[in-house]
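One-letter codes give the sequence; the fold follows as tokens. Both lines appear below.
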Amino acid sequence: MRRAISITVLSTLAGLAQAGTNDTFDCSNFLQFGGDLNKTRAEFAQSPETMSWNWFACLNQPASANSPDRVWETMKPSDQVYLSNGAQPLPYAQRVPTPQAVLDKARQQQMNLSRVFHNLNAVQQVDGLILEMGGDVPEAERGKPVRFQLLMGEGTFDYIVEKQVYNMNGQYALTGNLAFPSDAWELKSGWLWIGNDAAYQKRLEDDGYYIAQAYYQDKDGYQVGYAALSALHVINKLNPGWVWTTFENRNNSKYTVTNAIPPTPMTNSTGPTAAAQPVNTQFQGQFPPLAQYEQIGTQIRTTPTLLANSQLESAFQSQSSCFACHDTAAYSKKDGYFNFALKQQGGIVYPTALVPASDFAGYNKLDFVWSLKRAQWQR
């Protein structure tokens, strides 16, 4: 039953993505902007929020006919790019096999072995903190962290391999700034861990969460089960300074909490922005399976100054500027990665405006791509 429902939902999305309300948006080549960068830029300029929603809908299409996976789930996970031994990664379409121990547990749980298993191997946010689950979650999950996964598109991957910056050796050898191609994409996803709690899973499904198969490794070995997509942060290089847009489930405040004592529901303080609100209403009606997801906003350069996802930058929202923080992505042989945590008035602040170019003397800019910080030295 679980698989049948999932495929039905995805098929509905596929049809809706082509239907449109007024103008039809073609998803067939959207990761390359339909082969016409200037046309897409012009359409984006008319309404960045509309284009961002079109991308979100296209990313949530089935990856192929009758596939149980969505397009974005087939992108390359960062842990398969920045390998622990610094080796060259496998080609983009070739995946590192899911660990046998994960498959064995999945088989015992009668999970779909032909469907993607997400490795939710990260829990730290930008500021190094974690976001805890709470509120309506089962007691067993209370206080446990929201988990994350970073993925990239083929344009991003190919450039990283071409420049050999998938390991620290390659970044150390850089003699100039990086410049990713226009078809570069990166996604960061946030997840509420479900495990095998069927009642909890049903509650999340009723609240419009997309449910996927997942695992992570801890001191007790591999934990295998289901997870609910709470957030999806999407960036691409349509513009030279990239485009930043972020989505999250409207019910996240029911399941995630602040670090206050006592904890309070986690909400978003930066949006949905005024520009995103009417577009959310339009697309939520157009795409029922995505109706509980909302766009918080879209950012180009520092307009608006603040933009955050409550799941990815929870305690960091008051200082979160996608463009300003990622603009500091840089590496120096002498000083390592640029530190965008700025000391001020006895505390730490983060940039919400561009850092002066003079601060980057001796650094090679990484073209806004902070995921490169996950690279390891080749062994």
Q: What stands out?
A: The longest strand covers residues 221-236. The first helix runs from residue 2 to 19. The CA atoms of residues 27 and 220 lie 42 Å apart.
